[in-house]
Each structure stands twice: as C-alpha cells, then as structure tokens.
Specification:
Length: 75
C-alpha cells in the first residue's frame, strides 16, 4: 500500500474543494497528522446571495486518502 503523505492529503482536499465549492482559490493553512488521520484546514471564498464571504474549512482524511469528515464555517 502506498504511503499517504502530507502533500497527498493536501492535494486530495484541494481537488475536492475545487469541485465542491466551485472555486480555484483554496488557501490551505495547515496539514497535520493526528491519531492516524490527516487534518487539513484553511479558507476558501464563497458567494452568498451575491456577497463574497470567506469560509473556513477543516477536512479529515484517513490513511488511504478517503475523506472521513468536513466542517465549514463563515469567518
């Protein structure tokens, strides 16, 4: 089995958010491994009723690269 690296975890999240949030502007703030999972957090822009906002995200990925959970909140 391929070792899933920090860069791999970041790339999975960036690719997922580009599709999910329909944006190219993904700012990853940190990528850390904790208790056997990768935790990736950062910000991305969203448009709410014609107004631009910044949304914070945290995505948790397992050792195989599968997204286990995600959390989004407005800044």
């Amino acid at each position: 089995m391929k070792v899933f690296s920090k860069d791999d975890a970041q790339q999975v999240v960036v690719d997922f958010l580009k599709k999910e949030r329909n944006t190219e502007e993904i700012a990853v703030a940190s990528v850390e491994q904790k208790d056997g999972v990768w935790i990736v957090d950062g910000t991305c822009p969203i448009n709410l009723q014609g107004h631009p906002w910044t949304e914070r995200f945290e995505v948790i990925i397992d050792r195989k690269g599968k997204i286990k959970s995600m959390d989004f909140s407005l800044l």
